[in-house]
Hints:
Elements: H1 8-52, H2 57-67, E1 73-79, E2 82-90, E3 100-108, E4 119-120
Antiparallel strand pairs: 1-2, 1-4, 2-3
Domain TadE-like: 7-49
Pfam family, one: TadE
Transmembrane segments: 15-35
Amino acid sequence: MPADDDGYVTAETAVVVPALVLLFGMLLWGVMAAAQHIQVVDGARVGARAAARGEQEAAVRAVALSAAPEEATVQTLRQGDFVRVRVEARSSGPGPLSVALSAEAVAMAEDGTGGTGRAEK
């Protein structure tokens, strides 16, 4: 190795390693946010199915929250033959990296089921 190349590997490593760590952190945050969004969607879907079956309001919220991320809120609304369940949560992450996540699911109420009112956690 020629003498004039001394220090280049150290300098390149000093620049590349922090960039790779930052890239890995961003990818990890994105995967975690996507996974939490899937949980929010799942919570809305199972909540809508439970509400369509005519479950009590507390049971609908409990089922939706069991599939949703922690600190999620659940809202239900009956509109004619349809029940609508909306789940909202924030993704994990520091400060501005915590984004709002929400999903809404609608299902047709089965015959003979009672209406669900509006509720919020």
